[in-house]
């Protein structure tokens, strides 16, 4: 009997649809490493892709899911052998490359990161693409000259996947973290992660002046649009703002004034095509610097069977923290 594996697949015949299917080996696609997928995650991008709210999926049929962790079962790649623990995210997963919402994945080994020994497969997806993006954001702040003595660091969209891990990382590194959220009922949760102060996103989400009172030494922005424009306008002289998300929108209604009058830096953060050396450094630092106890407190298990129904919820901001998709459920 041929082995089959449960997968969540997008099709466009005759129109866009996503459904659970049983697939065989031939439908795993090409690659020199085969992985038994143990965990994946539910990210904002997954929500966009599964609902087709944004044209994420560019190839059909396609296995959904922007990341996964698991154990190598077969390998023709020199860098991996059966039994190795690996993590995969980005590089077109759920866009033009099969992703992680499958019990078995086949992938080019050049795209895989060996999981640091101190992390389990489940912890890797408690971190996931969101946590990895948060670390890339922290690294970008540091490369822009940020240190804890410079002043407050703002995290927008702080109750979401990237935001929660960013709060934990920055607090652990000694920064005074201010968390912005549209869910003020999550104040206690965010302070438990290390936020020194929680503010309502409405103070940042409406149209504002191009130059405002200086406050932030650094910003991790997960929201975009008017929020990003306002935080740039409020950033101190020489401050650093990183941009990694578009929860509010992809537009950016700002002026050049903060850049030419306050020397503000605006640094984009891309998790999809980041070079392998940068990925490995991010995962190395996550393994050594992220408070695992706090990571557990912001994570919850989501059965694979409930992923599709959960897609609209993450877009509506109804999911707090990190959703770990258990591929065995």
Structure description:
The protein has about 325 residues and is of the alpha/beta class. The chain contains 10 helices and 16 strands. Strands 3, 5, 6, 7, 8, 15 and 16 form a 7-stranded mixed sheet that branches. A 6-stranded parallel sheet has the order 11-10-9-12-13-14, sandwiched between helices. Helix 2 packs across helix 3 and helix 2 packs across helix 8. The two termini are about 25 Å apart.
Could you outline the blueprint of secondary structure elements for this entry?
Blueprint: E1 4-11, E2 17-24, E3 33-42, H1 44-51, E4 62-63, E5 67-75, E6 85-89, E7 104-107, E8 113-114, H2 121-143, E9 153-155, H3 161-172, E10 177-181, H4 187-193, E11 197-200, H5 202-205, E12 216-221, H6 225-234, E13 235-243, H7 257-261, E14 265-268, H8 276-289, H9 292-297, E15 299-303, H10 307-315, E16 322-326
Parallel strand pairs: 9-10, 9-12, 10-11, 12-13, 13-14, 15-16
Antiparallel strand pairs: 1-2, 1-4, 3-5, 3-7, 3-16, 5-6, 6-8
- Report the order of strands and helices: EEEHEEEEEHEHEHEHEHEHEHHEHE
Approximate strand percentage: 25-35%
Distance between the termini: 23 Å
The rounded Rg comes to 20 Å
Main CATH class of the largest domain: Alpha Beta
CATH topology of the largest domain: Quinone Oxidoreductase, Chain A, domain 1
Our count of domains comes out at 2
Mean pLDDT: 95
SSE-based structural type: alpha/beta
What name goes with the CATH superfamily of the largest domain?
Medium-chain alcohol dehydrogenases, catalytic domain
What shape does the CA trace take? globular
* Strand runs, count: 16
| Count of DSSP-assigned helices | 10
Largest sheet: 7 strands, mixed
Indicate the low-confidence ranges by residue numbers: none
Tell me roughly what share of residues is in helical segments: 25-40%
């Amino acid at each position: 009997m041929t082995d089959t594996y449960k997968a969540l697949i997008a099709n466009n015949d005759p129109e866009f649809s996503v459904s659970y299917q049983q697939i065989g080996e031939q439908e795993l696609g090409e690659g020199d490493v085969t992985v038994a997928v143990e965990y994946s995650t539910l990210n904002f991008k997954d929500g966009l892709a599964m609902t087709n709210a944004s044209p994420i999926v560019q190839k059909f049929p396609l296995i959904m899911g922007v990341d996964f962790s698991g154990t190598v079962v077969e390998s023709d790649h020199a860098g991996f052998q059966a039994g190795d623990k690996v993590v995969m995210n980005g590089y077109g997963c759920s866009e033009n490359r099969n992703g992680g919402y499958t019990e078995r994945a086949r992938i080019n080994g050049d795209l895989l990161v060996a999981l640091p020994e101190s992390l389990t497969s489940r912890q890797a997806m408690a971190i996931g693409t969101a946590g990895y993006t948060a670390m890339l954001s922290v690294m970008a702040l540091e490369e822009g000259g940020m240190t804890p003595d410079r002043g407050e660091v703002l995290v927008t969209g702080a109750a979401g996947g990237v935001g929660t891990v960013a709060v934990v990382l920055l607090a652990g590194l000694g920064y005074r973290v201010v968390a912005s959220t549209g869910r003020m009922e999550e104040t206690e949760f965010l302070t438990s992660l290390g936020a020194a102060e929680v503010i309502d996103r409405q103070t940042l989400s409406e149209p504002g002046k191009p130059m405002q009172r200086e406050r932030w030494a650094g910003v991790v922005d997960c929201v975009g649009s008017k929020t990003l424009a306002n935080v740039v306008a409020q950033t101190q002289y020489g401050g650093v703002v990183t941009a990694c998300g578009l929860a509010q929108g992809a537009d950016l209604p700002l002026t050049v004034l903060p850049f030419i009058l306050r020397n503000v830096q605006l640094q984009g953060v891309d998790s999809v095509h980041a070079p392998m050396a940068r990925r490995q450094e991010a995962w190395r630092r996550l393994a050594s610097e992220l408070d695992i106890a706090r990571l557990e407190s912001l994570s919850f298990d989501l059965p694979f069977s409930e992923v599709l129904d959960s897609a609209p919820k993450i877009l509506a901001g109804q999911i707090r923290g990190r959703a770990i998709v258990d591929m065995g459920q």
